[in-house]
Amino acid sequence: MKIINLGEQNSLLNTFVAQIRDKAIQKDSMRFRKNLERIGEIFAYEISKTLNYGEKDVVTPLGIAKCSLFTDTLVIASILRAGLPLHTGLLNFFDAAQNAFVAAYRKYGKDNKFTIQFEYASSPALDGKVLILADPMLATGSSLVLAYQRLVQSGEPLHTHIVSPIASEQSLGYLSKQLPHKKVTLWVAAVDEELTNKSYIVPGLGDAGDLAYGTKL
């Protein structure tokens, strides 16, 4: 698995990441969602550089222009509900992409231990397509791996791009072991060192789903 940390470069991306972390700015849920959306757009642009391209003749009012356009068929997948703003940003740029969704959540038991519960999954066939799997945060990485395993039941992607703005060091190690093959690229904007005993990332940003859509039971 290849890991690309765009946050190591000086760019506007780091401003948006700083804003989704800022507890004062987080009070505005619309701005939080919009910043995740804009982060998704930046990742989409960077991913576009890795796709396969071909030349196409485009008819203009005055003639024919030869344009280099990507030829891959894309599927954008997100883990509900926190992944939706990021999904929107990716879809803003890859507007012809097909879409997939996985509903998953943590179910806590004793001693702050949890299992990942799946309630819903919907995906088109993935054979020969480029899969972009979005999740705002990677804490342990376990839910994303399970989501990936569920999605590839719909076929073997040509390549998988995992997009997660904030990840823990632990999750990078876990994903590298679980998804070692070369057909996976992980895109992040920040890597944090610490996890709490409930597996929340520190400094992280809190619960992305709650910040975007309100608290839940």
TrEMBL record:
Pathway(s) this gene product operates in, as recorded in its UniProt entry: Pyrimidine metabolism; UMP biosynthesis via salvage pathway; UMP from uracil: step 1/1
A GO term, aspect molecular function: uracil phosphoribosyltransferase activity
Domain of life assignment: Bacteria
EC main group: transferase
EC number: 2.4.2.9
Chain ranges of the Phosphoribosyltransferase domain: 9-215
Needed cofactors: Mg(2+)
Annotated keywords: Allosteric enzyme, Glycosyltransferase, GTP-binding, Nucleotide-binding, Transferase
Substrates-to-products reaction catalysed: UMP + diphosphate = 5-phospho-alpha-D-ribose 1-diphosphate + uracil
InterPro entries xref list: PRTase-like, PRTase_dom, PyrR_bifunctional
Role noted for this protein: Catalyzes the conversion of uracil and 5-phospho-alpha-D-ribose 1-diphosphate (PRPP) to UMP and diphosphate.
Family note: Belongs to the UPRTase family.
Protein's name according to its UniProt entry: Uracil phosphoribosyltransferase
Native source species: Candidatus Egerieousia excrementavium
Gene that this sequence comes from: upp
